[in-house]
Amino acid sequence: MKKNMSNIIVSALTLVAVSFFGTGCTQKNKSNQTDKTSLVVALTEEPPAGFSPATKWPWSGDPLFQNMLYRYDENGKPVEDFATDCTVSDDNKVFTITVRNDAVCSDGVKLTAKDVAFSYNLIASSSTWVDYSFFDRAEATDDATVKIYLKKPNSLFKHILAMTAIIPEHAYDKDTYAQNPVGAGPFVMKQWDKGEKMILEANPYYYGKKPRVNQITFLFVNTDTALALAQRGEVDAARLSVNLGDRNVNGYTKKIVKAKDSLAVYMPSILFGAMEKDGVKLGNDVTGDVAIRKACNVALDRNAMVQSVLGGYGEPLYTLFAGTNYGTSDITYSDNDRELAKKILDDAGWIDSDGDGIREKNGVKAQFVLYSVPQDQTYSPRQGVCLAMQQQLKEIGIQLDIEFKQFAEVTKEKLLYQQCYMTGMGGDNPLDVLTGFHSSMSFNGSYNPSLYNNPVVDGYIDSALNSKDENEAMNFLKLAQWDGKTGTDYLGDCVWLPILRVNHIYLVRDGVDLPVENVRPAPHRGGTWTVTEQILNWGWK
């Protein structure tokens, strides 16, 4: 009865939402098919803190209202946007960058290198998801030149610049900018009704390629409502969750985007009490044994999870950074091998001596907690993956207890360093190897959550940061994952548990040109917005 009532409530809320948005969109979209000057797109993820680079914007894709020194191309390489040239000091600690002279903000004020310096100094002291631990300061030597000083060498710092947008100093107000952004990007915010919709219009001063349409409206709705709006013909494009992936709508084409939107599990790599923080003992006596981590890796049936949880809209993930130029792509183990998993545990002394179905070693049960965020109405399949893992690991004598908590709670209570956590990850930033595994990153936000410490791995990562050649740097990062003797991947210390990647699914109205196939394989972080990488090419055929 509870399930039936829940379904009734969800259906009712969806009907209300469709009715609400439909009243404002039906006539508009009918005119779209005639004048072809605007588009309406349904997305779920609305940036909660707004659109300021000082508060975790942009997630991914185009920053819309601002520009950047560098942008990622389709191959994940930083290419020039506002920047025109860059020289790097011999010690990889000073980046001298010249900028173009034709960038004008949406309010008509020219953007200069001084705005770049202002932005980076501000962002470094703010709450941002980008790792600025290397950053010291930025100084503009004139309107066309900015110098960025780092505390430590970082040859890959351009990747940070390709994820950081520029705030015009004259337009910045801490209390209002995120809601009313001004910048030298391709769009102007005409209207933002939080929790409902946002309307963009083309920035007439933009120095780059002009948008093909004059106006784009984003509707912020759950995935059920997005589907319903498409069924009513009231949106031009909508992203669906994987559980709705088998739905087809007349007049729309379904587009599937292969993504780097990955699910993996942080696992403490040290024994309980091996480290302390603020008087709290950290580590885990179960996952601190590499045999447990390796047994979990080979026991999981990832293909079964892709089918049962994702409906086939995804793929197994065997190495964390597969498909990148800094990740190992060789699969060095077979999963769904319960017999091998049992042998690994037997050989390590994990035996079910009391017949309760749970192995133990030295009086410690092979039992630990897996935390994950609560289920929501976005695109996350985490709950289903957690439950599938629980059942599969039970078959090899490991008890997985699932608890749903917000990530902020898990980090605040230091549970991140004592138990396991189902995380969303994946992107194009090679510095993820640094933040994920270098011992110096422990307790820096949520970096190195496994408290991993391997001097050889640290050395490879340091060599990458000191390299003068990016290809050489990438090779060092691969060696950090596996060099034939040690590393972070399965054959080495098997630090994390990679599970699967989730495809992104879009319904696009016939006649609308939304080239989602041409974006980079969408990362996890703000994955919804990755589609906007091609926003300047959105239009009507």
Average pLDDT value? 89
Binned strand content: 15-25%
User: Biggest sheet, open or closed, and with what strands and sense?
Assistant: 7 strands, mixed
Secondary structure tally, helices: 12
The low-confidence runs, each spanning 5 or more residues with pLDDT under 50, are: 1-32
Strand order of the largest sheet: 8-9-10-1-11-23-12
Computed CA radius of gyration, to the nearest angstrom: 24 Å
Percentage of residues assigned to helices: 25-40%
Summed up:
Helix content is 25%, strand content 22%. The chain contains twelve helices and 25 strands. The longest helix is centred in the first third of the chain and has 34 residues, at 2-35.
Characterize the structure shown.
The protein has 541 residues and is α+β, with helices and mostly antiparallel strands. It is built from 12 helices and 25 strands. It has helices spanning 2-35, 113-124, 158-161, 223-231, 290-299, 302-308, 338-347, 382-394, 407-412, 431-437, 455-466, 470-481; strands at residues 38-43, 70-72, 78-80, 83-88, 94-99, 135-142, 145-150, 187-193, 197-202, 215-220, 237-240, 252-257, 262-266, 275-277, 280-282, 314-316, 360-361, 364-365, 367-372, 399-404, 420-425, 497-502, 504-509, 512-513, 539-540. The strands form 7 sheets. Strands 8-9-10-1-11-23-12 form a 7-stranded mixed sheet, covered by helices on one side. A hairpin with a 5-residue loop joins strand 4 (83-88) and strand 5. Helix 5 (290-299) packs antiparallel against helix 7 (338-347). The relative contact order is 0.16. Residues 1-32 have low confidence and may be disordered.
